[in-house]
Design goal:
Helix content: 25-40%
Number of strands: 7
Order of helices and strands: EEHHEEEEEH
Strand content: 25-35%
Number of helices: 3
Largest sheet: 5 strands, mixed
Structural class: alpha+beta
């Protein structure tokens, strides 16, 4: 499982897919989410605007990501 470090918590699911380079555009993110190809914490997620938080696991096409907070921003939180 890979780790994806984010600066801002939460992040929307469609934004996360683009940040992870799993899709190239918002339109592609919308399509794969609506087709039920993305799972959040083990359950299919059909909401592209779903808020993803630190500690969440996102799966897509056999790939898994664990969302983590960027260390540089931890001191500011």
């Amino acid at each position: 499982m890979e780790e994806l470090w984010i600066r801002q918590d939460p992040i929307r699911l469609d934004q996360l897919l683009k940040l992870a380079n799993w899709v190239m555009s918002g339109a592609e993110a919308k399509m794969v989410i609506q087709e039920g190809l993305v799972s959040l914490n083990g359950e299919v997620c059909l909401q592209r605007g779903k808020k993803i938080h630190v500690g969440d696991q996102v799966d897509f096409e056999g790939q898994s990501l664990l969302v983590k907070k960027s260390p540089s921003d931890m001191a500011e939180s």
